[in-house]
Amino acid sequence: MEAESTKSLEELLKDELKEEITEICEQLYIAQECLKVVEHLIEAETDRDRQIVKSRNTFFRWSKHMYIRIVIIELNKLFNQSKADDFNILSFIEKLKPVGYFALLNVDENNIAKWESEILSLETSIHKVKLLRHTSFAHKARKKSKVPPSNFTMAEGKALIETAQKVFGDIYYQIFEATFYVGNIFDTPVENLKEIVNTLTTVKKDYLKPLRDHAKEYGIVDE
To answer: Of 20, 21, 198, 218, which is the most exposed, with the fewest CB atoms less than 10 Å away?
Structure first.
């Protein structure tokens, strides 16, 4: 406690800002890793056995839809424009302005304007996320309302995530002069998923090999 009391106001604000970035980026990390999982599950495979494992495994099919749901929910939290919500990216940037909570940290106003512009340039995608969150992934009663489909794409989800990564990376570097990375470089969920798919594919190939070899003896070729 004594060491804490000797910190300047600027140092205390930096500690608080770092904590807020970490909390908000937990949402970003969840969306980021879930999107990578979905991308791998829908990615076309040249190996027929791998494709069958991914497309016919009930758990993978179920997981794909659940992870898409999580991506939408977390992106909506991150990009919703309600100033009453402290844990969205625009409310956070608002605190960095000269009249904001972290004004003492003297964040460059040109950078603030640039970050807001980068986010607002994705307004169409943000609206699609909001529409999905409050219709397809909300209460059953809302699902019955006549709302046009949002046709939200994986590319749009990736663009939102990459923009958030860039903004938080810029903020972190400007204030702390250090690199900020969201998530782990190794042992990620999608890497673990790839190992599981590889194992299941190997098991399938080993199981079918005697049958395929026998079929070939009779001139039956497994395409």
So the answer is: 218
Residue pointed to by tokens 């977390």:
74
* Backbone CA torsion sign across 80, 85, 91, 92: negative
Q: How far apart are CA 209 and CA 142, in angstroms?
A: 50
The pair of structure tokens assigned to 200 is: 């299941």
**Are 91 and 85 contacting, i.e. CB atoms less than 8 angstroms apart?**
yes
Calpha distance 38→153 (Å, rounded): 12
Dihedral of the alpha carbons of 203, 209, 210, 212, in degrees to the nearest 10:
140
Instruction: Kindly report, residue by residue over 46-77, the tens digit of the pLDDT.
Output: 999 999 999 999 999 999 999 999 999 999 99
Distance CA 43, CA 211 (A): 28
What tokens appear for 47 in the block? Answer: 């190996």
Cα 69 to Cα 31, 35, 64, 134, 185: the distances in Å are 10, 10, 9, 12, 24
